[in-house]
Design a protein that fits this description.
By secondary structure, the protein is of the alpha+beta class. It folds into 2 domains: about 120 residues, no CATH class; about 110 residues. The chain has 7 helices and 13 strands. A hairpin with a 3-residue loop joins strand 12 and strand 13. Helix 4 packs across helix 5. The radius of gyration is 21 Å and the shape is globular.
Amino acid sequence: MRLVLIAVSAAVFSLFAAAGAQAAPQTLLLVAQGDDLHFTCAGEHCSAEGTSLCLQYERASPTRGTPYELVNEARYATGRPTGLTLIGQTASGTEKTLPLESMNIASERDHMAVRFRIDKALLAAHGVQSAKLRVTHNVVLAPVWGPGDANPQLESDLELSVGPMRTVAEVTLKRQKTEVRVAHIVRDTLNALPRGRVATNDERKTAFDSALTLHAQKDGGVLQRDVDEARKNIASCDFINDGEMWYRGYYEKVSRYRGCLGQRHDNLIKDVNQTYWKSMKGAGS
């Protein structure tokens, strides 16, 4: 009888362990070479989206809201700087560096987009009116470790991610720079839209114009073919006449127009990611 009870207890424990155990999702590459990601506020928080690639095709994509953190470049002796600077701007245009640890990072749409979030109170505490995240190079983000992780990201995994995997990904990004640039224009249009409410047609146009201005200020400016392709992707969502919001999750509502633009962005970057995966498989990784 005692042996039967032990066997039953072991079986029950195994079931609960299997149910609670979950492998860590993929490391992500934040694709934002030299970009400023501008935060938009709604309620008590301010958010900005970033374009991302999955570096580990053998791992699962993250679910929305999975917490991520910046991989320490110095720890793996990559020779690169931290890569992220959180900047606040006063009404007069003066810039102040804000504490990076006050920002949360989470997956937004599978492995194609991540969200950066800060508390609105942070702006008031530092006497600034707006914030942006300056990205000096393509940084690697890793899922935050949690208890019960059946297959965590090991030191060797992270070393591969910031090393050869990122190197192959950056070669892919250069080869498909048109798709990346167009995705970034759509991303910056998304970031310029109001959060927590429906955007008017004028606000939609202003958001797109704002994104173009950002890209025109970059070295080399913005190519007309990129503008035309971005406009085509964004115009494909013009049929949406947002008279109401739809709910996602328990605490946030998102306009259908924003969701449509997110899908257009993700389709562009998904093609780039698939090219990277093929390159990695071809290299025998």
